Amino acid sequence: MNLYLPLKLLIALLLFCLSMVANAQNERAKDSISNHQLNEVVIAQNKKTFTNSNGNIKVDVANSVYSSIPNPIDLLSRLPLVQISSDRENISIVGKGNPLLYIDGQKATINDLNALAVADIKTIEIIKNPSSKYEAEGRAVILITRKLSKKEGFKTDVSETASFKKHYNNYFGFNSNFKKNKLEWKANFNYNKLEPWENHSIAYQIPQANIVSDYDVSAVTKRDQYVFGGGLFYKINDEDYFSANVNGKLQNDTFDINTFTFNQNQDQVNHVFTFSDNASKKDFVNAFVNYSKKIKSIDTNVFVGFQYSNFNQHLESLVSNNYNETDFALSQNRDQKFNVDVFSGRIDLEKKFKNEMNLEYGGLYLKAKSLSNAAIFDFDKNENEISDYDFKEENLAAYIQFSGKWKKIDFSFGLRTENTNVYAKFRTQISPSIDKNYTNLFPKADLTFPIDSTKSINVNYSKSIVRPKYSSLSQIATYINPYFLYGSSINLMPAFVDEISSSFQYHDKSVKLSYYQTKDVVNSSFVFNDETNVLMITDVNFKRETGFTIDFTLPFTYKFWTTTNSLVFIKSRVEDDSAFLRPSKPYLYYYSNNTFKLPKDFTFVFSFWGTTKQNDGIYERKANFILDLSLAKAFGKNWNCTLNYNDIFKNTIYAERFTVNNISSRARYLVDANEISIAVRYSFGKIKESEFKQKSVNENENRIR
Predict the structure, then answer these.
(1) What's CA 68's distance to the chain center, in Å?
(2) Using an 8 Å Cβ cutoff, are 119 and 67 in contact?
(3) From CA 182, how far away is CA 232, in angstroms rounded?
(4) Greater confidence, 65 or 575?
(5) Per-residue pLDDT for 2 more than 60?
């Protein structure tokens, strides 16, 4: 892309914004002195994009420029505190780790999120201290609420997004809903033609084997992605409803991986160019049914939900190596498959008493079964290695939570118990690699002390668990070069977290202090095979992590300018006997979103986030700073156009260094986030006011992983 184009566009956007601001001031001045006749009074309420309560942030997606972002992962990456990994497979909350995902009454995974249309999202809420009714897994919750129409008729949105990164990407979307009386139908379909680029490099030393090596790898993927969904919502009466939804994502990838490697093993030096031809298929389908009923005889609300999901992955790779600028020779033919089926059912009951007391209790059952198959043919040895790995998990949980108000104090006390039964083994082995049955208790307590109508103090304690993802149970490994693999983590154990926090809220601003300790925390590590001289990077359990955070959430509004700011001071320390420990140092995460409501239905947004240099005792990571710009314009009631310019300074670079198992490394990951995109959305349909008044649907959701 021409280097001057982004600079010109940035300057044009800033000049345009300044001119709009000036025009806004002039028009307001003219209106204040020249309006002599008032024919009609219109009272308009501008909805805030961000709202804050004790550090919990809620984002209005449907009525903001965020609705134009083409996919949910990019949408989350624009929100405060949310971090997306370089491979776009993991989500974390700053100071909280990996959150639980909930979508409309059911637990979700990142696959569910990828199968969701942004046009279908109403709000996203980041909950930092979830109650006992949420699963014990995770210290935070990302709660996604989808739209429900309050008006009869039908409406269809057709969207087209042209995205210019290193390569051109195109997103086409169709989202429609129909509502008549108590019944609402929804359907969406998206076709995305993508060409993502990625690059990373690692330099490492293995002193015990006298090995020094580094590599630089890059890949360009040609991706066809189909996202679809459909469902119905039936409002039985003012308090009861039934809903059913099916959604999925089908993805086909073809990509070449090119790796340049330097490897010195004692006195032997090799320069290797590795070329791998890859074809990948990832299919995900999810279905769930929800039923909510109020039993008037006992004045209790009952919610019942069932969910089934399937994820299937197939990766084929043909690998060739060229040593020291000679000829290419076939190295491996890798055929790897992974399939996981998950079924879950839950029941929640809620009883409200007249004295402002509330009793909630319920249970959950989850069953997961996965099969991982790997067939690897080694051309050098003329051998074919086949491996099959079976995994089964059952989880049974129950919870009770009592909340209310005593005098002026709001309180909530909850207890959750979860029993987990895990069994896994390779089919060629007699004994299982995992055979465990364990039960844990997870208490939670929350107290809020109001000082006056604008100020309050909150104290919270929680115990939680972090379970391995089902995707980590896959044997699928990525071949980088003859000396390096990205491997699986099939022997991971759960991590347990204890956390205590306190926050002070003043109007919509808050400050929160937290201390946590995590046992068996999961981090990256190296495993070296001294027989093959192959190094594998994988996730393992470390001994512990402790941390202290101070979190400021500071929203402001001035006339047509609204800003939401987050500052998080973090000091954490990771410990393990296998790692080289350095003194840990505090670092700062900062985020600012600034929205300007301009005349003639223009909205201008600039946001930025970043971190200072991080050092948690083992991992040292570089500082970064990301700046995004957005300009949106509504043309009447039917057309909307948004221009985005993301990662203006091309700073989405993740760099870290660490030493584990006497192996030291420096890594650098480049993400193709520098983007100019144009999104156009056209809405049509016939909407009329409905006499039926809809009550908001239960926004609590549940887990499956």
Answers:
(1) 18
(2) yes
(3) 10
(4) 575
(5) no
Half-sphere exposure of 312 (CA within 13 A, CB side): 8
**Main-chain dihedrals φ then ψ at residue 532, nearest 5 degrees:** -100, -10
Q: How far apart are CA 157 and CA 90, in angstroms?
A: 29
- Distances 687 to 64, 136, 699 between C-alpha atoms, Å: 21, 42, 25
Confidence at 138, pLDDT banded by 50, 70, 90: confident
Type of residue at 221: T
H-assigned helices in 555-697? none
The pTM score is: 0.85
For the beta carbon of residue 86, count every other beta carbon within 10 angstroms: 16
Residues 552 and 556: their CA atoms lie apart, in Å, by 13
pLDDT at 701 over 90: no
336-356 as b/e, with b when 16 or more CB fall inside 10 Å? bbbbbebebbbebbbeeeeee
Taking the C-alpha atoms of residue 84 and residue 101, their distance in angstroms, rounded to an integer, is: 14
Q: Which of 566, 582, 573 is nearest to 515 (CA)?
A: 573
Find the length of the chain. Answer: 705
Residue among 583, 653, 580 nearest 616 (CA): 583
Nearest-angstrom CA–CA distance, 62 and 120? 8
Task: Measure the CA–CA gap between 704 and 469, rounded to whole angstroms.
Answer: 10
Place of tokens 């279908």: 120
Each residue's pLDDT tens digit, 374-423:
999 999 999 999 999 999 999 999 999 999 999 889 999 999 999 999 99
What span, in angstroms and rounded, lies between the C-alpha atoms of 478 and 488? Answer: 9
Cβ neighbour number for residue 119 with a 10 Å cutoff? 23
* H or E, element range at 29: helix 4-34
The distance between the two most distant Cα atoms of the chain, rounded to a whole number of Å, is 92
Spatial contact of 644 and 74, defined as CB atoms under 8 Å apart: no
C-alpha 404/C-alpha 368 separation (Å) is 36
Helix (H, G, I), strand (E, B) or coil at 3: coil
DSSP 102-140: EETTEEE-HHHHHTS-GGGEEEEEEESS--TTS-SB-S-
Q: Which of 14-28, 315-329, 642-656 bottoms out in mean pLDDT, i.e. has the lowest?
A: 14-28
* Mean pLDDT of all residues in 346-354: 92
How far apart are alpha carbons 645 and 637 in whole angstroms? 25
User: At which residue do the structure tokens 């808050």 appear?
Assistant: 510
Tokens (6 digits) for 207? 């002193």
What is the per-residue pLDDT across 77-108, written as a single tens digit (0 to 9) for each? 889 999 888 667 789 899 888 888 888 767 88
- How far, in Å, CA of 45 to CA of 60, rounded? 14
Task: Compute the distance between CA of residue 193 and CA of residue 253 in angstroms, rounded to an integer.
Answer: 11
Quickly state the pLDDT bin for 588 (edges 50, 70, 90). Answer: very high
For residues 398 and 417, the answer to whether their CB atoms sit within 8 Å is yes
The tokens of 589 are what? 């995460």
- Tokens 């001119």 belong to 19
199-234: pLDDT as tens digits: 999 999 999 999 999 999 999 999 999 999 999 999
CB 255 within 8 A of CB 220: yes
